[in-house]
Amino acid sequence: MVVYLLAALLMTGCGLAARPVLRWAGGFDVAVATPGGSGQISGQISGQIPSQMSRQTSGTITLELPVELQHLPEPPVLEAAPIQLLDRTEIFRRLTELSLGVAELGHPLPEHDEILASAIAAIGDAGMQRRYTPRRPHLLPQLMRAVNDEDVSRRELVSIIARDPSLVGSLLKMANSAFYRVTPKPIETIERAIVMLGSDGLRSLITAALMQPIFEVSMAGGFPRFPDIVWEHALLSAHAAIPHAAIVERADQFAAELLCLVTGLAEIVLFRAAMDHYANTRHGQPAPVVMASLLTSQSAAVAWQIGASWELSEHMLAALEEQMVTAEPTTPLGRSLRFGRCAGALAVLRKNAVIDDGTARLSLPEGGLSPAHIKCMWKRLLDKPEDSKATGRMVKRR
Does residue 81 sit within a domain? Predict the structure, then answer.
């Protein structure tokens, strides 16, 4: 019986292939020499010995690899992706570096302590607080009442919006952005926006449109990206807090959204106040590490001051107060606000290629959302419009 045995079967251990086909009729030990003489592969085979090969006295046949196979380069070693688990402090440190446009904040110097103390004292002055604390958007109270009233119709919402032409323009502009729009056809009327997004989605758009003008900073000095990054973080934080409040905490999702925007607004207020104070007392601008320290230590307190001046409800002010300490919040809105801020920060870092997707997903806080909800939320935060309707359905099924 004639048996064809591929030489590749003899060389499986060293990962090399050979083409010769051998025909055998007797029993011999065969050894295949590997490159560099690092070892041999032996085995029993049967057949006739080809004339090109020499039979050794011991009954062993040595097969040498062709020259072109002996000098092949070693295959490259692929390193695993550098996925990291980031804690909350590291997440917000990287976000601050991104917003201030620096690769590394560095460490405070002794002279920075005096500058920081001076800025904190100036911002704490009642006169400066009145100067920089933004006025509450005049439609906000009506909007909050409409959101909390299940009997409010879409027509009534449209009438509220129509009172402010600039709000209508901002609303339609945002509705046609990649974040919200889910069809090729543009959204040209408020009524169509309601149909496309539903009442909850429209209320979110109205809230963001009301708040966005307050985030605009005309003179950002040497930190040109700061206003845009802070606005992006506030908006994405709000859209992460909404499903958490609705599904996990069974809390007012509109309140959670508004608190995220107010917290971002506090950073803008601090930034403007610090830049003006520094310009009036010193030349140039504050060092990034000083600005970072100011934002870290004072943002939560300024957010509470803004909330109090806007006469927000007691449970909303309690949620803002809980952000002043590192301990875990105890109120539903406080937990949703903290979850939203952290998830929003990771989304901003991912969208700006500061971290990879694996690091972002691994570092997401355990907020109580199911893996399916997390996946849906995360896709929407990364501007994938095809999932925006699914996110809306996810919230409405609470």
Answer: no
Residue 80 lies in a domain: no
Please report, for the domain that includes residue 226, its CATH number.
1.10.3210.10
Both 168 and 61 in one domain: the answer is no
Q: Which residue range forms the structural domain that includes residue 22?
A: 5-70
Q: Which two tokens stand for residue 193?
A: 């926006």
Helix/strand/coil for 29: strand
pLDDT value for 53: 46
Cα 347 from Cα 24, distance rounded (Å)? 66
Q: What is the pLDDT of residue 235?
A: 92
Are the beta carbons of 125 and 276 closer than 8 angstroms? no
The answer to whether residues 237 and 343 touch, using CB atoms and an 8 Å cutoff, is: yes
**Residues 64, 93 within the same domain:** no
Kindly report whether the global pTM for this prediction surpasses the value 0.90. no
Residue 76 lies in a domain: no
Task: Report whether pLDDT(36) > 60.
Answer: no
Whether residues 11 and 102 fall in one domain: no
Euclidean distance between CA atoms 45 and 57, whole angstroms: 17
Identify the three-state secondary structure at position 16: coil
Contact 303, 265 (CB under 8 A): yes
Per-residue pLDDT, 213: 79
| pLDDT at res. 258 | 93
pLDDT digits (tens, 9 = 90+) for 69-112: 666 666 666 555 578 899 999 999 999 999 999 989 888 777 77
Q: Please write the tens of the pLDDT for every residue from 326-357.
A: 999 999 999 999 999 999 999 999 999 999 99
Name 29's bridge partners.
Answer: 44, 60
